[in-house]
Amino acid sequence: MSVTDWYAHKSLENGVFWIQERFYESGNRANIWLIRGSHQDVVIDTGLGLRSLPEYIYSKGLLGDDSKRKNPLLAIGTHVHFDHSGGLHQFQQVGVHKAEVDALANGDNFETVTWLSDREIVEDPAPGWRARQYRVTAVTPTHILQEGDVINLGDRQLSVLHMPGHSRGSICLHDKENKMLFSGDVVYDGSMIDWLPYSRISDYIRSCERLVEMVDKDEIDLVMPGHFNTFGSKRLHRLASNYMASAGACHRASTCVVKSIASLALRASNSRSAC
Questions:
Q1: Residues 166, 144: contact at Cβ < 8 Å?
Q2: Count H helices, E strands: the chain?
Q3: Are 132 and 272 in contact (CB under 8 A)?
Q4: Which of 13, 25, 152, 226 has the fewest other C-beta atoms within 10 Å?
Q5: 3-state secondary structure string, 63-79?
Q6: With contact defined as beta carbons under 8 Å apart, do 134 and 116 qualify?
Q7: Per residue in 65-124, pLDDT tens?
Q8: What does the buried/exposed string (b/e) look like for 85-94 if buried means 16 or more CB atoms within 10 Å of the residue's CB?
């Protein structure tokens, strides 16, 4: 299958492109965001990495030919889970939060929660491809991100917000001027997952409190999430508030059980894949 077949994209307003992997049919299919700047272009999350994302971006002319863009395309992982980080190794410049640098550099397929089945890939990306062979390719980040960092694209800036809970290194990227939040898996229009390795409910609550505060301060108009469709500030407020309201003792107890089972299953699956 060609690279141009594997991906599809849509041009949104204000220099943003929405890219998806067409033949990965799963709730885990991540949104890939390309943001164009006057001096730097950024990709936020990279999908599974089964075909070359940079090749697709360049072949479709999504970056144009502006000579002012002297910096290589920067790929940022909102976190290192496999559905977001699988293609990071394809880029010259790679950024993740400092808490997850080692997991990505070591190709730790437990922390990246690598879990992929043949039925989710409805068209093989290459002859003989099988999901059991899939691993997140290790790559050493060139940009180690932390709370308060600002990624300067020239005519726009993205502020790094450390929002742990889903994973220990989860981040959002906030375009303050345009009131856009690239939220990764911190929040999307679905159930928040807090039962994976390195998920932590207490951290998630604090991150949700922060999201609610940002909405109350009128700092967000549009959320570009890691999965599913975009949504506005009212929906963001409701999603974050609902999580906080539901995160009581019963939720914590049941989540602890699910987390233990998920961790055992992930270790067993990745142990078999390594054989």
A1: no
A2: 7, 13
A3: yes
A4: 13
A5: CCCCCCCCCCCEEECCC
A6: yes
A7: 765 566 899 999 999 999 999 999 999 999 999 999 999 999 999 999 999 999 999 999
A8: bbbbbbbebb
